[in-house]
Amino acid sequence: KDLKKDLENDSILNEIYTINSKIGEGEHAKVYLVMDINKETYAAKILKENQEQVDINAFYREIEILKKINEVKGSERLIIKYYDSGKGDIKKGSLVSSNRDYLINNYFPNVNLYTYLKKTKTGFEEKYAKIIFWKILEGIKFLHDLSICHLDIKLDNIVLDSHYNPIIMDFGLSSEMIKKGPDDYEYLKQNKGTPKFMCPEMFKMVKYKGIQADIFSLGVILIYLVSNKNAFVLANKSDDSYKKFIKKDYKGFWDSFINNEPHLIKISEELKKLYFKLIAYLESNRPKNISEIFNDPWLADVKNYTNEDYQQYENYMINLEKQKDNETLENNNQTNLNNQINEGNRSMSSDDENYFDFDIKPKCINKTGLNAMNYIKINGYLNPIDFMSFLLKKLRTEFNCGIHVEDKKKLKFEATFTNEIRDELEKYESSKDEEEGEQEVDLADIFQLKDSIIMIKLFESINGGYEIHFIKKQGEYMEYCKHFEEIKNIIKDYLNL
Question: What predicted TM-score, i.e. pTM, was given to this entire model?
Fold first, then answer.
């Protein structure tokens, strides 16, 4: 029998790898936690069925790039490690999904950099941000020295090893560069990536240099590390903040960034200057290469860091990890609900009806894997139908969410949040562009920007109280985290906490 959907949980890939759970999903592939016959764990990226040939070619290109990286000694210290690839069958009993393209990499249980950044609330201390950024630079320089540009550098694509060193992953959009001379490569034409981290050249749909495109993305990474936000949404003229930067109104650009954000005032002048260089509108004004960034004054003292400094960084990250996945809120004396909200994350099968009965009593929870799902535990009395009806109405009215209700009691529904970046691009398309030679193209269509879809379900906990489960069905991970926080605040208001 052919499978109508991908199998998880105890399915066997290529007679070697047992699938444990899904830990991620992109537009063209799903990522699973798998175990081989020696009980070693890996991450398996499996191409979805019925993909366009251009996407299949991109998957094969990623494999070839990882093979090339893997041939160089020491690459595993900086870059995700390649182990295996090919075509295989996914089997579970008599069910078979045949001839599936797969890629096996090493698995990092510490998840991605954004997860840790989110725990800080206001960003890392600059001392620790320097360590993280320096190590990311080492990884990108390693790639550039092999004539490879990543082209999708973002917080989600950087995982942390057991000592919290950044490891660069996801080479689905990467490209090999053709060298013309020292530090000079032929222009690239590929205009795909993650819009928040993309350079202006990509939005203008013109040829660009891969190294300078990566350097721009590093600038966005840098400011996120110390602030948990960026100073603009998109690096084009549709964005009012970045438009100030283009017009060299640097003071107005920076003031609008730190406005009403007291914690941003602490950012050092040296970091601000480096940030401005990295996100320069013209690629010729950005650093020529990663070595030039290493020599920037903001990073000068990293060369003198001792083992004690790195141990302090590791202890800092351990303390972040020990924190509850979010805060535990104290009871409000003005209410008799006696509610507390406790938050965390779990991973579960997409076929979640294997795990839950319809009478909202959980059978069991699969706790392995990454943040495939967040949950909120509520201790205390709650009227489930009234609560979910309130939440549904709030999301529809305050956030203009599209709502798809999955059951009559409204205990399970999907909320669709409109993609803000697409709105910005549509605004850009509708405006008249005075820049000579700018092409009129539908950027929103080219980037295939999708709305965020979050499934929200309420269960009565087997240990008392209630659990609200959140599953990212579609959209960027960072957007999901933002909307999760917004929903959490609605719940806090409802409980008067």
Answer: 0.80
